[in-house]
Amino acid sequence: MFAGTAPVSDAAPVRANAARARPAGPETPPSAVPGPLRAEALGLLALPTVASEAAWHRLGPEVVPVLAALAEDPSVSDAQRMRAVTALAWVEFPQAGQTLQAMLEDPHRPSDVRSQAAAALGQCLGFEAVKTLRARLEDRDLRIREAVAQALGRLGGQQVREVLEERLPLEDVPQVREALQQGLTLAEP
Q: Which residues have a Cβ under 8 Å from the Cβ of 111 and sit 6 or more positions away?
C-alpha cells in the first residue's frame, strides 16, 4: 500500500477535476498493448519504488491501459503488478481514475489488485473517491473492506469519519473492524 502516506487534509488539492476533464477512451485489449510502451512501463516498474509523476506523464495517456494490463499479467512479478496499480494514481490522465474504479469494483479481478486499487483511487481522486470507497465497505471480500477502510482513513476529514463510524457497528469480521478503527484514528480531524 502507500506506506508512510499521511492523511490528506480537507483542504488538500484533489486531482479529480483533471481526471474528469476528458472522457476515457475505450480500453485497449492486452494483446494490443504496444511493445515499446509496455517495455518502458516495465522498466519504470522495475524500480524499487514507484517512479515519479513526471516519468509516467511523459509516457502519455496510452500508458493507462498498459498499466491496467500489467497489473493482471501473471508473467509480471507481484511487486511490479502492485506498482502498476499504484502508478495509475500518478499518471494524471482522465482514464486513470476510471480504470482504478473499474479495478476496485470488479469482483472477478484478483483481490490484491482490487485492494491496491482502493488505496490508489483514494490518492488519485481524493475526496471524490469517498462515494466509491464507501460502497466497497460492503464488499463480500473482507480484504477489500479492509483495504477500503485504510484508504478512507488516509483521506481523513469529517465526511470519512462519519462513513467509518457508520460502518463500524455493522462489521462482524475482527480484522475489518480493526481496519475501520485504524481508519478512524487516521481520520482524526
A: 141, 143, 144
- Give the residue from 120, 133, 141 showing the smallest Cα distance to 163: 133
Q: Of all helices (H) and strands (E), which one includes residue 86?
A: helix 78-88
Cβ count near 13 (within 10 Å): 10
Contacts of residue 167, Cβ cutoff 8 Å, sequence gap at least 6 = 137, 149, 180
Distance CA 92, CA 148 (A): 21
The 3-state DSSP class for residue 188 equals coil
Q: How confident is the model over 64-103, as pLDDT tens digits?
A: 999 999 999 999 999 999 999 999 998 888 899 999 999 9
Residue 173 amino acid letter: V
CB 82 within 8 A of CB 112: yes
pTM confidence score: 0.78
